[in-house]
Amino acid sequence: MPWLGFIFVMGHLSINQLSRQFRDDPSVVDITGAQMVLVMKLSAFCWNVADGTLPHDQLSDFQRDRMLTELPSLLDYVGYVLFFPSLLIGPAFDFVEYRRYIDCSMFDVPSTVDPSKKPPTRKKRRIPRSATPAIWTMVKGLAWIFAFLQLGSSFNPSTLTAESFMNYNLFTRVLILYMVGFTGRTKYYGVWSMTEGACILAGLGYNGVDPKTGRISWDRVTNINPIGVETAQNCRAYLGNWNMNTNSWLRNYIYLRVTPLGKKPGFRASIATFTTSAFWHGFYPGYYLSFVLASFVQTSAKNFRRYLRPLFLDPANDKKGTPNKKYYDFISWVITQLTFSFVTAPFMVLSLKSSLQVWSSVYFYAVVWVIASMAFFASPGRTVLKSKVDARIKKARPGEKLVRIASTDSITGGRLPVLGVADDLQKEVDEAVQEIRAEVEELRTKGIGPADISDRMRNMVDQVDELRLRKER
């Protein structure tokens, strides 16, 4: 049933996305933004109900926290679906959070908190006073919207496809490309901050109190971290600070749901997440160009973080940088921001022709250096860098077994795809080959299908393995 519910809401959204795309009439009110939020809320609700029918030992901690053992009343359900502060553009949240907000159990203070540190409330109202953080969030949102209004006339998607764009030199064109991307982001920073402030004012943004300081957290429904995006030094941080509630939905209700119980998520989970994220956004070709290129960027960035970044860390203490670390950080920031200005350009111009026109106007610079970096890490250069890293660690920690230090891993410590973008394409390909091989062997063991077909499939897998090994060599 959860999958049927997901197919229904995603299918209905897709029909409206295609209708909007083919109509191409800005004067018609577009409801797909609100519908994208509803897809997250309604599909999550289906899974919460389904989890309530399963034994607890088959559920994760997250599932046990969000499961519903009985259906809510119609009034509560409609109140959740049409919760006004987040109706049009989010943020999305689970029904359990809404129910705890309605019955005020969300605001229960643990007994471990000093009574003098309990958050102040007004008269009999159980929701802590939230006007000040709500107003502050509103002010930040208005500031971002003001920036968008000031910059939007000079830096908008049409600027990139205008004939006059090519009159500038390459450096200026790249700078304009960055400014168009930044201006587009300010719009989202503004509206998401405004809705976050509305949720804080209503009380839904409450996320507990620090037992030591009595400081209240109002970040339950935070959807964007503008500073985190603009200062990101790698693509994982860039994507992870953008549209965070969608990341959470994809992780908990797509990626982890397509994986059978007791098995680790693999290639199929990543493909399902990528496809869902792409379809959820719409069907403009520009979306898919951005997603595919971002997957390659993610893989290249991970190689740099794994094999180059350790050379700028203290080998005796990987949490401490060398004197040259600040230069590495600055260059990483510049490359990350310029790369994603290029990657996200098709997200703004949308059409295939316009996307390729914009990319060609800056000589496909991000594609060029992604291909160059992937070629380098497929060459003996990767072995040279790895040997230098190992030698530095061995010299600083004599006698210790060489293991990959935490700082060279992904900053999240896992391989969950962010916004559907693959974390490591090489690993995805390897896992795809392994899954195909396992299925072929299972079919042969059961005697299902003609033996010659199974043998041909196995030979094809062997050839893919051989090609991959040749590439690595």
Description:
This protein has 473 residues and is mostly helical. It has four domains: 1-103; 108-224, no CATH class; 267-422, no CATH class; 424-473. 62% of the residues lie in helices and 1% in strands. The chain has helices at residues 2-23, 32-51, 61-66, 74-81, 95-102, 131-152, 157-161, 170-202, 226-230, 235-240, 244-255, 267-281, 285-307, 325-343, 345-349, 352-361, 365-377, 380-396, 425-446, 451-472; strands at 313-314, 317-321. It has a two-stranded antiparallel ribbon with strand order 1-2. A hairpin with a 2-residue loop joins strand 1 and strand 2. Helix 6 (131-152) packs antiparallel against helix 8 (170-202), helix 8 (170-202) crosses helix 14 and helix 13 (285-307) crosses helix 17 (365-377). The radius of gyration is 25 Å and the shape is globular. 30% of the residues are buried. The model is unreliable at 405-414 (pLDDT under 50).
